[in-house]
Amino acid sequence: MSHSLFEVHEFIRRVIALNLPEALWVRCELADVKDSRGHFYLDLVQKKEDGDEIIAQGQAVIWQKNYRALQKKLGLDMALLLQPGMEILLLAKPEFHERYGLKLMVEDIDPTYTMGKLELKRREIIRQLQAQNLLEKNRRLPLPPVVQRVAVLSSERAAGFQDFLKHLTENSFGYQFQIEFFQAAVQGIQVEKEMADQLQKLARRAADFDAVAIIRGGGARLDLAAFDSLELGKTVANLPLPVLTGIGHDVDETVLDLVAHTSLKTPTAVADFILHHNFAFESGVVNLGQVVKNIGQQALKEKDGQLRHLSQLLDFQLKNNFRQQKLMLDFIEKEIPVQLASHFSKQKIQLESLEKIVRLLSPETAMRRGFSIVLKNGKQVTDASELAVGEEVEVRLHRGAFIGTVKILQK
Questions:
Q1: Which domain holds residue 142?
Q2: 138 in the same domain as 104
Q3: What is the pLDDT of residues 101-155, one digit of tens each?
Q4: Do 129 and 255 meet the contact criterion of CB atoms below 8 Å apart?
Q5: Domain finish residue from 109, 130, 163
Q6: Backbone phi, then psi, for 392, in 5-degree steps?
Q7: Using alpha carbons only, what angle is made at residue 96 by residues 92 and 102, rounded to the nearest 5 degrees?
Q8: I need a labelling partner for 352 at 20 to 30 A (CA). Which of 168, 212, 256, 332 fits?
């Protein structure tokens, strides 16, 4: 006996309706989500605990009416919860349709299950980053003394981007900044890819910037799930530029916050951090200038005191020298005549003595004592060899002279 496909499906529908009359809580992972006229069609899978092998799969539907009711009841953006890759807990009633097959009709969702799974995943990512010594790597990069060239990684539609830009550029200090914007999704499944791509661009242009600011507006914890990414965390940790985050949350820290150089609560807090960082440098320069001025003034004061002291000492020494020189001059003035008189007296006695010697040694004195002078042709003869026999010579005596002829020579 054969049965038509419709009969078989009708039989399955009755069996399911009879045996599963109530909705069931179903744990699963969203493989795909499609939206059509407000209705959401979900592809569900279950994977092995220790791998990605799929061991079960199915389909579920959230009708538009139920979707709106759930969004109102849960108080969150359902679109954030219904993302591929999310692990969720659904309250769904199995229904089998003869034409469309088996589907789970979703009546409720438990977001705490998803949040718990996300937290477990986040903790595992943090553990891996810590094991690879990446949590502190970006924080160890030195932040330049003055941050002026800022790369901003955000979405133009992000609530905090314009606030950040205005707060930074319209500052009361008058600081000027060079800001370059890098577009990236800050919500949804494209966050990891787009941000990673932009961060790789920034890594290649590291010399063009002082720091990177990753900012977005505020939001619920589920909004930040995209920032709990292992690959994104690694990329930020290894970036050769200091990363400042202002993702917009008050309590929880994302993986991105933990690996960043400095984590701040909001985009405007990031702007404030940069402004105060630069102001601290300016204050340091001003204070250093004041210190230099004070040191200079103190040095000038000390040198002025030293010059005054030297001036007084010089004046005293000059006056003392003048007094001593005056006393010396007075002494010399009195002593010179005495010394000159004594000197002249001694010289006179010496001259008189020399005069006596000269007189005693003079030819006249010698001739008075009987000596004579022999002259030949007007020149005095002192050696007999200068004469020849028969030559005439003049002989001068003390009194008078005579001419004689050489008769005999005795040598």
A1: 121-280
A2: no
A3: 888 888 888 888 877 777 778 888 889 999 999 999 999 999 999 999 999 999 8
A4: yes
A5: 109
A6: -90, 140
A7: 70
A8: 332
Beta-bridge mates of residue 92: 24, 106
Share of the chain above pLDDT 70, in %: 94
Which band of pLDDT confidence, cut at 50, 70 and 90, is reported for residue 261?
A: very high
Q: Are 260 and 245 in contact (CB under 8 A)?
A: yes
28 lies in the same domain as 134: no
- On the CB side of 45, CA atoms within 13 Å amount to 15
| Contact status, residue 173 vs residue 201, Cβ threshold 8 Å | no
Which tokens belong to 90? 């659904």
Q: Specify the higher pLDDT residue, 97 or 270.
A: 270
Residues 86/29, Cβ–Cβ less than 8 Å: yes
- Between 84-88, 222-226, 380-384, the lowest mean confidence (pLDDT) is in 222-226
- What pLDDT, on a 0 to 100 scale, did the predictor assign at position 241? 95
Helix (H) or strand (E) holding 394: strand 392-396
Does residue 126 sit in the same domain as residue 93?
no
**What's the structural domain count of the chain?**
3
Residue 57, domain CATH: 2.40.50.140
Residues 6+ away with beta carbon under 8 Å from 348: none
Of the residues 109, 132, 149, which one is the last residue of a structural domain? Answer: 109
Structure tokens at 4: 């038509």
Closest CA to 391 of 410, 404, 379: 404
Please check whether residue 295 lies inside any domain of the structure.
Answer: no
Q: What is the pLDDT of residue 358?
A: 78
Q: Which helix (H) or strand (E) holds 154?
A: strand 149-154
Three-state DSSP at 149 gives strand
The answer to whether the CB of 244 falls within 8 A of the CB of 213 is: yes
Q: Place 250 in a pLDDT band, splitting at 50, 70 and 90.
A: low
Q: Is residue 275 part of a domain?
A: yes
**Residue 44 falls inside a structural domain:** yes
Residues 218, 254 contacting (CB under 8 angstroms)? no
Give dist(CA 159, CA 157) in Å, integer. 6
Token pair for 352: 């008189």
Spatial separation of the C-alpha atoms in residues 124 and 115, rounded to whole Å? 14
Residue 205: its pLDDT value, please? 94
Residue 216 and residue 201: Cα distance in Å, rounded? 20
Q: Which two tokens stand for residue 309?
A: 């002291």
- What number is the average pLDDT over the span 146-173? 89
